[in-house]
Amino acid sequence: MKGKLKALWLRVSGAIVCSISLLLPYKPRFWFAKLLTWGSNPVSSSIGMSFQKQARFWNKIVLAFVFYLGFPLAKLFLWISGKRPLGKKKTAETFWHPRPTPESFVKDLAEPF
Amino acid sequence: MENNSVAVLYSAGSDSSLVAIKMAKRFDQVHLLTFLRKGTHGTEHVLAGVKRLETHVNSPNKFVHQFIKTDKLLKFVMYERYWTHYRKHKKMVLSMCGQCKVSFHWRALIYCLENGIKHIADGAVRIANVYPEQNEVIMLNRLRQLYATFGITYETPIYEEGELTEQILYELRYSRNPKVKGQKDDLQFVCEQQVLYAMFLRNTLHKMPFEEFEKKMAAYYKEKLDMVEEMTKEYLEKGPDSRLAKLIEGPQES
How far apart are CA B252 and CA B66, in angstroms? Predict the structure, then answer.
C-alpha cells in the first residue's frame, strides 16, 4: 500500500510540475525550479543539486524549530488542545496526611520544660 | 591556428576532471570550457579544480580555462518552435538537461571552430544514460556526426568507466578520497534546474519502457541538432549577419 501511494505521489507530483513548467517562459521557469529545489527534502531526496546549500538551509530550519520554538510551541499546542492548561499543575494524589506543626503542638502547654 | 589542442567540457566534477587528465597526456594544450547560465553555482569550485589539475600535471601552461555564458543559446534551444515541437514530441520539450547540453555543445563547437581546435571530449558515462547527452541512442551518435561535419573529432574517453572514475582519480593521487561524488570534496559545478529534469523523468518514465523513451527523445534531439547544424553552417557563411551571431556570448578567461 505504502509503495503504491509513493508511486502515485511520484506520478502526480511529476505531472503537476510538468504542467506548470510547460507554460512558463525562461526566467520564471528558473525561479520555479529554485522554489522546488529549496522546498525538496534533502534527507529523502537529492534531486536538488545545490544539495549542500539546501541541507544547510534545512538544518537551520530544524534547529530553529527544535531549540527556539519547540518548547513554546509544545506549550501552546497542549494549551489549545486542552490537555494541560497553563497555570498550576494538578498533581497526583498522595496518602500523606498533614500533622500539627511544632508551634501548635506546644501552644497549650503552660510550661514546656 | 592551433594543431595539437583539445577542448574539454569541464564542470570540475570527477568525470570531466579525469577526462582533462587523460587529454593532458595526449595533447599540448587543453582548453577547459565551463558554461555559465542562470541557476548554475560553484564557479569558485571550478577555479579550484583548474588549479588542482595544473598542480597534478605539473605544467601551469597546459590548461586554458574559459567561462562562457550560454543563456541566450539555451533560451533559443528551449523555445524555438516550442508549440510545434510540443504537438509532435509532447513532453520531450521539457527535458531541460538535454536542451542545456545542446546549448553547451553548440557553444563548444563554435569555440573549436573559432580557435582551430580539431578535438573535443567530455565526461559522458554510460551509467548516466538517463541524461540525453550521455546516451548513445538519444544524442551521442548524432553529436559525433555533428562535430564530424565541421571536421572535429568528438570523444567520450571514459564512457565505460563511469563507476570507476573516483577510484581512478584516487589511484592517480588526484583526489584524497575514493568517494567524492556528493561529498564535501566534490567540486562539481551544480545546477538548480536539475529538479525540473527529475520531475520530467517522474512524469515520463513510468508511462513507457526505457527503449521507447530513448526512441522518443532521439527523435526530438535529432531535430534540435539538425537545427544546430543548419544554423552553424549559416554562421560560417554569413558571419555577424547570421541568426546565430546574435545568440553567441563571448568567453571570459578565468
Answer: 6
Ranges of each domain in chain A: 1-39, 49-85
Residues B10, B99: Cα–Cα separation, whole Å: 17
B182: left (phi over 0), alpha (psi -120 to 50) or beta: left
Looking at beta carbons, which residues of chain B come within 8 Å of A37?
A: 192, 195
Q: Which of A15, A25, A47 comes nearest B203 by C-beta?
A: A15
Q: What is the percent of chain B where pLDDT is above 90?
A: 67
Within 13 Å, how many C-alpha atoms sit on residue B22's CB side? 21
Pair B165, A2: CB distance under 8 Å: no
Supply the pTM of this predicted model. 0.79
SS3 state of residue B150? coil
pLDDT in tens, chain A (113 residues): 667 888 888 888 889 999 999 999 999 999 998 888 777 655 555 444 445 566 677 778 888 888 888 888 888 888 888 776 556 666 777 777 777 777 766 666 666 55
Q: Which residue from A7, A14, A52 is facing B199, i.e. has the nearest CB?
A: A14
Q: Is residue B36 less than 8 Å (CB to CB) from chain A? A: no
**What digits encode the pLDDT tens for the residues B133-170?**
999 999 999 999 999 999 999 999 999 988 899 899 99
B182 touches A: beta carbon within 8 Å: yes
- Which residues of chain A are within 8 Å of residue B190 when distances are taken between CB atoms? 49-51
Q: Which of B 191-250 lie inside 8 A of A, CB atoms?
A: 191-196, 198-204, 206
Domains observed in chain B: 5-253 (3.40.50.620)
- Cα-Cα-Cα-Cα dihedral of B193, B174, B129, B141, to 10°? 110
Neighbours of B197 (CB within 10 A): 23
